[in-house]
Write a structure and sequence with these properties.
heterodimer, A: mainly alpha, ABC transporter involved in vitamin B12 uptake, BtuC, two-stranded antiparallel sheet, 14 helices, 4 strands, about 5% strand, B: mainly alpha, about 70% helix, about 0% strand, globular
């Protein structure tokens, strides 16, 4: 009879080891999935995890790794703060869209004026847009006790409709010959997030790094970070020690919204270039996986973001070379989260092989 | 704009159709939540049900077999959630999200070769005299059988929860799993069964969309209905008949906005399409004042040694 015994403290070693074990198990399960799809599993795994980094054309793919990782890390850092405190913002995709709309809107309003002030203004607008969109579930939760999970998610669908409306209407390129979508910001030097496009560097990466450091300091060196952790691990103790839940909710949701908005702005003014109906490709949802895979730890999230970016790029290569369907990567990412959650059992519990059953 | 083009009888009849997937998923989730489990994976189970049902009914040519397959598909996927939360004691919110993300990917993968195909049609129930009645006929007596199953299911769940011993045990587990455990009930088993029931209902709801309401397969076609179903359970204060009422309300809003789109009202299409989600938020705000109806153990992990 197997029984579970709760550890007095979650195991630190296992806490760091489980993401790696989960990735390995996902590779095995993913390999089986590829067999079912009629592909050579070893070739597929190599294409996804090896080729973008060290393969023949890696020089082309490596910069893209950063391009994809930046928004994921930026969003996941914000989400992790809330997740740590049991505040579930799962509508980052919506905040991402609104951030992109606000930021691009400011930039497009100044077109074709050139000034170094335009891009900072766009950054500010992007962050504010995401922040404001996240404030809706935050304020509703604080004022009325409304479930933030459902509200933030509903707002993703609202944001998607708003995006459709904007790219077909207000922000549509007047010289676009009737095609939907805004002007391409890559042709507008003042409103462009690229630092060096050939190296795949844009301001989003700089902000992602700053966010990682900021979150690390906050969680380890600041009373607010301590309160976030305390609320998540021992809500009753947090209440007795005088943590203000209202401020915590507003801070966590607001910060994650602002970071998601920034991610959207950097994406729309760089890699994607224009506001179009489907410029968002689900980073807001994948970032949830990144946050968990990184164990809600800033450095872990940085690594997890890079890994997840790798699966995106590897997935694209496998799509071209092996005809692997794009949805297979989505399944792969979903499986990763499953295994990770299942393996968490080992972190929090000890498995005992006892002769007798428990009551 | 031509509002006279909107026929009220057809409107009511079609709102019942629009409400059915929502009703099925929400009634299933209600049972799950009554057992004290919060499964946020409804959207994922629905979409997997939608494609399983679609694929099987295309392959076999029988919509009925497809519906059964959808229920099995939803229930099997929900077993993953049951394993994570009941055996591996993982966080229910995270596990539910994982289920949705995984389900969306899996359905897209399964559905690749089914895009653009028409499924075999489901026969409507046609009762000779009753269906030909003027207003009442089209509203009450000429729908597909699943719509009636949805209503019957609501009644069944209500009666089961209120009057049966099994329902009492289920509620006990949801209100206080420690007390239920002390009384000798197997908390984990009750919860796993409830989760599977919820999965089967969500799967059926999903297949209703892909086989009867639309009927076609497109990626991500459930478009948040699973999430609205979760909100509906809160709206209904965990009461089956109120779920029915809420589902018809949302179905009505959805059908109305589609009709207004077709009638060419001055409001842009995108803003009309937002309305079901905005109204869901509004309703959540109104209903969240009263939390007393929620099962007391909702979302809490049970482990016998604690």
């Amino acid at each position: 009879m197997i029984s579970l015994e709760k550890r007095p403290m979650p195991s630190r070693t296992l806490s760091m080891a489980t993401p790696i074990i989960a990735v390995i198990i996902t590779m095995i399960a993913g390999g089986l999935l590829f067999v079912v799809l009629g592909k050579n599993p070893f070739e597929a795994i190599r294409t996804i995890f090896w080729d973008p980094l060290l393969g023949e054309y890696a020089f082309y793919y490596r910069p893209q790794l950063l391009v994809k990782a930046a928004p994921l890390v930026l969003i996941a850092i914000g989400l992790s703060l809330g997740f740590k405190a049991g505040i579930w913002n799962i509508g980052a995709e919506g905040q991402y869209i609104i951030g992109a709309l606000c930021g691009a809107g400011v930039g497009l309003a100044f077109y074709p004026t050139e000034s170094i002030l335009i891009f900072p203004a766009m950054i500010l607008a992007g962050a504010l847009g995401g922040w404001a969109w996240a404030m809706i579930p935050a304020l509703l939760k604080v004022k009325f006790g409304t479930n933030e999970i459902l509200v933030s998610l509903m707002l993703v669908y609202v944001a998607e409709q708003l995006l459709a409306s904007m790219s077909l209407g207000l922000l549509k390129n007047p010289e676009g010959m009737g095609f939907p979508g805004s002007r391409n910001l890559n042709d507008y030097p003042s409103a462009n997030s690229w630092i060096n496009e050939a190296a795949g560097l844009h301001w989003g990466m700089a902000f992602a790094f700053i966010a990682v450091i900021f979150a690390y300091v906050l969680l380890n060196r600041h009373i607010l970070g301590f309160n976030i952790r305390l609320t998540g691990e021992a809500p009753r103790a947090a209440r007795f020690s005088g943590v203000n839940p209202t401020r915590l909710i507003l801070f966590c949701l607001g910060t994650s919204g602002a970071l998601a908005g920034l991610a959207g702005l950097f994406e729309v003014s760089g890699p994607s270039g224009q506001v179009s109906i489907d410029f968002n490709i689900g980073y807001g949802f994948t970032a949830i996986i990144v946050a968990f895979l990184g164990r809600l730890h800033p450095v872990g999230i940085l690594l997890a973001g890079l890994l997840m970016a790798l699966t995106y790029i590897g997935g694209e290569i496998a799509q071209g070379n092996l005809g692997l369907p794009s949805a297979a990567i989505q399944v792969f990412q979903g499986m990763l989260l499953f295994f990770l959650l299942a393996l968490d059992l080992l972190t929090n519990f000890r498995i005992r092989f006892a002769a007798r059953g428990t009551a | 704009m031509d509002l006279s083009a909107i026929n009220p009888v057809l409107l009511v009849a079609s709102l019942m159709v629009a409400a059915t997937p929502l009703l099925l998923a929400a009634v299933g989730e209600l049972v799950v939540e009554k057992a004290g489990v919060l499964n946020l994976g409804v959207e994922g189970m629905m979409i997997v049900g939608a494609i399983s049902g679609f694929a099987i009914s295309v392959e076999t040519g029988s919509p009925l077999v497809g519906l059964v397959a959808a229920m099995i598909g939803g229930a099997v996927l929900s077993l993953l959630f049951a394993f994570l939360t009941q055996v591996a004691l993982a966080n229910q919110v995270a596990s539910g999200l994982a289920l949705t993300l995984f389900g969306l990917g899996l359905s897209a993968l399964m559905g690749q070769s089914y895009v653009g195909i028409k499924p075999p049609a489901m026969a409507r129930l046609d009762i000779p005299v009753l269906s030909d009645l003027p207003v009442i006929g089209p509203i009450l007596f000429s729908h597909d059988p699943v719509l009636y199953i949805g209503i019957a299911l609501t009644a069944g769940v209500w009666a089961l929860l209120k009057y049966s011993r099994a329902g009492l045990i289920l509620r006990a587990v949801g209100e206080s799993h420690d007390a239920a455990h002390a009384l000798g009930y197997n908390v984990i088993r009750v919860r796993v069964l409830a989760i599977m029931f919820g999965g089967a209902c969500a799967g059926l709801g999903g297949a209703y969309i892909s086989l009867i309401r639309v009927p076609q397969w497109t990626e991500g076609m459930t478009a948040g209905i699973g999430w609205i179903a979760l909100a509906l359970v809160v709206f209904a204060s965990w009461k089956p008949w109120r779920v029915l009422l809420g589902a018809y309300l949302f179905g009505g809003i959805n059908v109305l906005q589609l009709n207004l789109q077709a009638a060419g009202i001055a409001i842009p299409v995108e803003y009309l399409a937002m309305s079901p989600y905005l109204i869901t938020i509004l309703v959540l705000v109104i209903m969240s004042a009263d939390k007393s109806r929620a099962p007391a153990s909702l979302g809490r992990t049970f482990h016998a040694s604690q």
